Amino acid sequence: MEKFPVIDLEKLNGEERGVTMEMIKYACENWGFFELLNHGISHELMDSVERLTKGHYRECMERKFKEMVASKGLEAVQSEIDNIDWESTFFLRHLPVSNMFEVPDLKEDYREVMREFALEIEKLAEQLLDLLCENLGLEKGYLKKVFDGSKGPTFGTKVSNYPPCPNPELIKGLRAHTDAGGIILLFQDDKVSGLQLLKDGKWIDVPPLRHSIVINLGDQLEVITNGKYKSVEHRVIAQTDGNRMSIASFYNPGSDAIICPAPALLEKEEAEKGRVYPKFVFEDYMKLYAGLKFQAKEPRFEAMKAMESTIATGPIATA
Asked: What is the reported pLDDT for 2?
């Protein structure tokens, strides 16, 4: 079986650049996931993020999670639960407007570390988008420009903990889904595993590696590449012991960004005939996704295709 792609980003700076770009291309085309080492984010900062995230869970989240489990009787379930996830989460929004100071119970040092971490992740996301442009033969900055719309990208972080679960075969940590957005950058626990992706009909573990960042592609990149790159179904398996930390940052298009296959990727003479993916406003896709997250992506694309006639082809309205 193929090994999960692990890529040393530092090698882009030397004579192995070509090989490294090919590895990224292969991962995007065949996996929809890859794991980065030497990505430029300092280990000291990552260690601080991990320490403070785990401390925040123990101090502020653990009791609430246990109360939720008790109130729903989840520890005593006898059959599979398919409408709830075994996770404790909160969300930080960075762009277009930060909510960092509105989230309750965050200590000042934690806020500052997460703000610094978000800036580093944002830089890495934009670097990766340009690497994807290079591999796709698109002009540098094309994906960033598409994502920007008129207001800039949407960027936020989901901070999750997956506590020990007595019945992991009956309750998923997080049910199987593809991600709706653009590019996802995950800092995950290096001791407790659980993240899996679906490849060739089999669930494959994403290896927990110290100080790595796991990358996966969202539905929007599948559309923009006209299916050359695919978003891939993934899930989290709860564990009977160990609390798994997951810090997933979503670098997404802005709400009014118009998403469609890049014209440069379509055969010029068959531009319309060859376009198998819809054209839509990102916010409209997210409204649809909200109720269908844990269902197949293809009907979402079909529903957006049916709505296409309502999209103005002129400049994006900013009012």
From this structure: 81
pLDDT of 114-152, one tens digit each?
999 999 999 999 999 999 999 999 999 999 999 999 999
DSSP, collapsed to helix, strand or coil, labels residue 318 as coil
pLDDT in tens, 39-55: 999 999 999 999 999 99
Supply the DSSP string of 198-262, one letter for each residue.
Answer: EETTEEEE----TT-EEEEE-HHHHHHTTTSS----EEE---SSSPEEEEEEEEE--TT-EE---
Residues 6 or more apart in contact with residue 123 via CB below 8 angstroms: 40
Provide the token pair at 83.
Answer: 């409408």
Length reported for the chain = 319
Whether the Cβ atoms of residue 121 and residue 186 lie closer than 8 Å to each other: no
| Pair type for strands 195-199 and 154-162 | unpaired
Match 């929007």 to its residue by tokens.
Answer: 220
